[in-house]
Amino acid sequence: EKTSLKEESVNTNLDKDSILRSITTILMEIINENMDSSKSKLREAQKNTSFYSKKIPSITIQAYFERILKYTKMEETTLVVVLIYIDKLCESNNFLLTDNNIHRVIVSACVLAVKWNEDDYYANTFYAKVGGISLEELNQIEYDFLSCCDFKMTIKQSKYYKYHDYLTNFEDEE
């Protein structure tokens, strides 16, 4: 059963900029941890996934998110869902975020989160253009993301609020 998070979060004290800074910092910390030499075999194995990019994009994670937000008008609650989805991908598959896959993970998580959490969204052709990848690539990574999560994208409200609260307090802790 899908429960909309929008109505429940109207009185949120999060704004897009602070959410974005928090999520970007979290993702960069995870990527740095994943560069540990003890994880090299797993990183090597992930080169065969559709998320892997041989060339690391020159755009920063922060700027990439800002670009997606600028053109998609994504809601604050959807950004929280993006982080939940990225965590779900990583946890359910022992998936390591790296500089080579983070941009594709972000755009696919954003597309899935928007489709799940918002009433209006664009066609994948639009998201592919915004994300700087082909429609075929976006369709593939969206499918692979769903497949890795066993097509189970529903989020319990308690989980949403756990992440929401974490992001709310994240900047205070930094």
In short, what is this structure?
The chain has about 170 residues and is mostly helical.
Observed structural traits:
174 residues; mainly alpha
Would you list the SSEs in sequence order as H and E?
HHHHHHHH
Helical residue percent? 55-70%
Mean pLDDT: 89
> Quick one: biggest sheet?
none
Q: Please give the radius of gyration in angstroms.
A: 15 Å
End-to-end C-alpha gap = 36 Å
How many beta-strand segments?
0
Q: Please indicate the percent range of residues in DSSP E strands (runs of 2 or more).
A: under 5%
Question: Helix tally?
Answer: 8
Instruction: Find the structural class using helix and strand composition.
Output: mainly alpha
Shape: globular
Poorly predicted runs are 1-12
Task: Kindly describe this structure.
- With 174 residues, this protein is mainly alpha-helical.
- The protein contains 8 helices and no strands.
